[in-house]
Amino acid sequence: MPPSCNGSKKESVRFVLVLSNMKGQPLTTVHAKGRASVAIPKGHDSGADAARRALETVIASLDDSKAEDIVTLNIAGKSALADYMVVVSGRSSRHVSAICEHLISDLKDDGFRNSRVEGLETGDWVLIDTGDIIVHVFRPEIRVFYNIEKMWATPDIEEETLH
What we know:
By secondary structure, the protein is an alpha+beta fold. It has 2 domains: 3-33, no CATH class; 48-154, 2-Layer Sandwich (Beta Polymerase, domain 2). Helix content is 28%, strand content 26%. The strands form 2 sheets. The protein has a 5-stranded mixed sheet with strand order 3-4-7-6-5. Strands 1-2 form a two-stranded antiparallel sheet.
């Protein structure tokens, strides 16, 4: 038996996994030193409780930032992307950016640190993905053009009517 497998807790083991594509070139490398019981840290809440708590944080932050026309859509049964989608408007590109920076700060303060942000540089349409909630912050004319509320607000279809 190798010395790293003898059960001693003082010894550390380094595992290296290299994934490669068809041509044998490495795509990514994963390192783990010692024993890692959990690869992804767990949050304080789980499932629906975490989503509701995040939604409360998002709505409060948007209200504080004077975001306009706040629409919340429950997409839990419609998509595996998230539980809720929030769509809001800012008055200008600068207001959109300020809303998003304030929201990101509030999410971090409440423990939602893994938010992904796209479009913050331009301030026309910013997408913030917290995992449980997707927030779209638009300038008004961009929001009217894409009209994503209408796309996601489709009525629920009962299973008996599917063919």
